[in-house]
Each structure stands twice: as C-alpha cells, then as structure tokens.
Amino acid sequence: GRIRQNRYLEPSGSYSSAFTFRLPERYVQAKYYVYVIVNEKMQWLDEASMDNNVQKRMLEIRVPPLPNLAVKSLQLVGSGGVAKAGQTVTVRFSVENVGESAVLKQNARWYDQLSVVLSDASRVIYRESWPHSTPPVLAVGEAYTKTVDVRLPKQHYGNNASLQLVVNVYDSLYESSLDDNTDSRQFRIEPP
Q1: Beta strands of 38-108 (E only): which ranges?
Q2: If DSSP codes are grouped into helix, strand and coil, which group holds residue 184?
Q3: Residue 46 neighbours by CB distance under 10 Å
Q4: 176 φ/ψ sector (left φ>0, alpha ψ -120 to 50, else beta)
Q5: What whole-number distance in Å separates Cα of residue 181 and Cα of residue 168?
Q6: Average pLDDT per run of 10 along the chain, which is 192 residues long?
Q7: What is the pLDDT of residue 60?
C-alpha cells in the first residue's frame, strides 16, 4: 500500500506514519518483508542522495502446532452393504485428532456433515450436519464416535448409493490439513 504525505519537511526534520496490513487468514509459515520506501523514483522531491530512502524489516510467521481431524471409520451398521428403501439404517463414524496439538476450547467449534447420495444420479437423498464443541480439549490421539439413524426414502431403490462424511465441513476449525476430513462408503438400496 501507499501513504501519501502532503506536508513540508524542514531540513533535518522527520515525520512518522502508520500503515496497517493483514496477513493471510490461515496460518502460513513464511518470512515476510516489510519495505518502507520514501520519495520513490524522486517523483515529489529532488534529493542529493536516495541512499537512505529504503528500509526493510523481516517479519517471520511461525505456525503453531495445530490439530488435525481425520475420519477413522464410517460404516453402515449391520447391513453387509445393503439397505432396504424406506428402512431406517444406522450409520456410525469415528473421528480422531491426529494433529500435533489438542483442539482447544477457544477454537473448538466445527460441524460434521453426513450425506446419502445416489451414485447414478448424484442426487442427495439425505443430508444432516452436527455442531461439535469439545469439552475443554480433544487431545492428540483422542477420538469421538457418533451414531446416526437415517431413514431412507421409499421411492429410491435399485440404486447404488454412498455415505459421504465431511468433518469440519465449513472449515471453521484451524487444522494442519483438510486432506483427511472426508470419507465415503458404497452400499446398495433394495426394494422395500
């Protein structure tokens, strides 16, 4: 950015200015450089020397250890991969913190989303999301399990379908990776 100075400066005089900038929202480990350049290209003042018109300072951002939620299991309980249209099926999933840090209470709100999608038409026939907030922490290596009853519609059968789970679906919990936040399982829906 630029700050324009519209003022007279006495010989050996000085002034100060402030500029606010924002780093990327997500933690990005890197070295940033802040440059201050005055009278760039001698556009405003004729100077005997421009040797002191540039200063730079390094700002190093280090990423703190972060949690990482990973789907460890997703199953259609007791079905053998087959369900009947109109029936209620039980889905169980387990999620573990495989990161380098606990999920702390100050950043501990996220949503998991389970969908049932018809494979041939990519049509979602069921979708539900659940909020999570941990009791004070979800330590590294700790997991939670959720069991959900899903009622399948009667009119959708003879189709292959899939359970699709997305953990931290709205990306509201800072994690070291989102690569292991999804899983899916195929199953068949038979006539009632």
Answers
A1: 54-61, 69-76, 82-84, 88-97, 103-104
A2: strand
A3: 6
A4: alpha
A5: 7
A6: 72 81 67 79 65 82 86 93 93 95 78 89 84 76 93 85 93 89 94 89
A7: 82
